[in-house]
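hiii so my PI (J.) wants the whole complex modelled not just the main chain, which honestly fair. so below is everything: two entries, each one labled with what it is. i double checked the lines twice but i was tired so who knows lol
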Amino acid sequence: MTPIGIIHTDFKSKKGMPIQAKTSPDGKGRIELLDRYVDGISDLEGFSHIILLYVFHLSEGYRLKVKPFLDDEKRGLFATRAPNRPNNIGLSVVKLEGIRGNIISISGTDMLDGTPLLDIKPYVPQMDNRENARIGWLEHKIHMMENTCNDGRFGG
Amino acid sequence: MTPIGIIHTDFKSKKGMPIQAKTSPDGKGRIELLDRYVDGISDLEGFSHIILLYVFHLSEGYRLKVKPFLDDEKRGLFATRAPNRPNNIGLSVVKLEGIRGNIISISGTDMLDGTPLLDIKPYVPQMDNRENARIGWLEHKIHMMENTCNDGRFGG
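here's the output for the full assembly
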């Protein structure tokens, strides 16, 4: 795995940052794509949203049972979106605001400034959305998402 | 990046397999999680759908302009879901059918038998879905998704 670019945001430290892209509509950012990949983003501007896969580059180690941001009970790591994982890959759907050369302007960011980008995929509801999903332990916690920020529980 | 398990499906070769999980509701499969990660899947069974990140392990090389499955025109690679990418990470939302020990039964599979699994995240519509998304070049092609299979254009 080798970064294809760097994501720049206003989030310089974990504490206080959004826990999900969905709760960060005002979070601006820009992707600085490595020049050699620029041909790969033609046709991208027709999409309003893109899926970013990136490295949680400041995550160190992981535990298989964690207290996720939205709960005080320990949950299985893979039943959470916690950033400290065996393969520390982050996934966010962000809004595509514009492209100029190798710079992709985005909003709805929830990643740290300087995050190494691994992949961009177009977000396609007809491929990515599922109806009537059950969300397990989150069912009674999801209402708190809007008002919950990173409190540093997975490292500062 | 190191696999946390292996995904077993009925798809032994690329040609003829589904191009998206969404078009493969009958595609059964099972994840054989490495024993040392089993504690990480507690609480997962409450979720009806899970996001799998995995390696397109038989993808070899990539081009920055490709003819995607749903088009005959060349498009920028990052504006497509083509499997041959600089970082060959696949993303599928599948249905969770059940868990027994380290075996996770799934359906709605669109990956090859033997695919190395990198991560499992719970699928949460309130986090992952976006409304009113524009889908660029796919707008006039998406209706063909249901009836399109992998024709081997990215390798056999």
